Amino acid sequence: MSSRRCSLQEGAPRAPRTDAAEFSWLALNPVAAQFSSAGYPGTFTLEGYRYIADPAQQAISLELHWRGQQPTERPYQFEWVALAENPIDGQVMTVPVFWWPQNGNYLTPCWRNGDFVRDSLVLDLPFVSQEVTWEVRLRAVDARTGDVMQIRSPDGTLSEAVSLGPIPYP
Predict the structure, then answer these.
(1) 3-state class (DSSP) for residue 158
(2) What's the Rg (C-alpha) of the chain?
(3) Distances 2 to 5, 109, 127 between C-alpha atoms, Å
(4) Which of 47, 48, 64, 132 is the right S-S partner for 84, CB 3.0 to 4.6 Å?
(5) Structure pTM?
(6) Can you give the pLDDT at residue 156?
């Protein structure tokens, strides 16, 4: 593990941070999606998520629950795109947004078997004229090589993105 870079910052933790925002009063939406790459070793699972839809801020706050299995060879970023539709605005889609797990403090090459990694983030959304139901699509992408991890759902289906939602708004 010492040869792997665990953080984008110097002096950052060598274990998952435990101080990320937690929405413990909300039910956890199970996902159980396993991420892996055909080209590089390493796997981890998105166990579930919680969300708060906040139309006043034009945002959705997400709490993601990850479980390390095997450290990844490459440091993967996560990419999200939110999609919705209504009769006034038609189809609405955000531009892709990338982020590093735990704000770059604990990267996927250091996610060991059994590590619980909680990540929280705020997804800014475009204005919509009336209520919608958002679907958030999440991918893991290696920014340097362009490798996109494959995601295996509990039923064995493979895809390049996992869908979080539906998320009613408002």
Answers:
(1) strand
(2) 16
(3) 8, 11, 45
(4) 132
(5) 0.92
(6) 96
How many CA atoms are closer than 13 Å to the CA of 131, on its beta-carbon side? Answer: 7
Four-point Cα dihedral 81, 148, 119, 130, nearest 10? 10
Q: Are 45 and 32 in contact (CB under 8 A)?
A: yes
Residue holding tokens 């665990």? 6
Measure the CA–CA gap between 33 and 88, rounded to whole angstroms: 34
**DSSP structure string for 34-49:** EEE-SSS--EEEEEEE
Structural domain boundaries of the chain? 29-169
**99 within 8 A of 170, measured Cβ to Cβ:** no
Joined together, the tokens standing for residue 29 give 């939406």
What are the tokens at 107? 């990267």
Task: Check whether the bond before 170 is cis (ω within 30° of 0).
Answer: yes
Top CATH class, 29-169: mainly beta
Residue 167: in which H helix or E strand, if any?
Answer: strand 162-169
Tell me which residues of the chain have a pLDDT lower than 50: 1-3
For 14-47, the pLDDT digits (tens) are: 778 888 889 999 999 999 999 999 999 999 999 9
Residues counted in the chain: 170
Instruction: Report residue 22 CA to chain centroid gap.
Output: 15
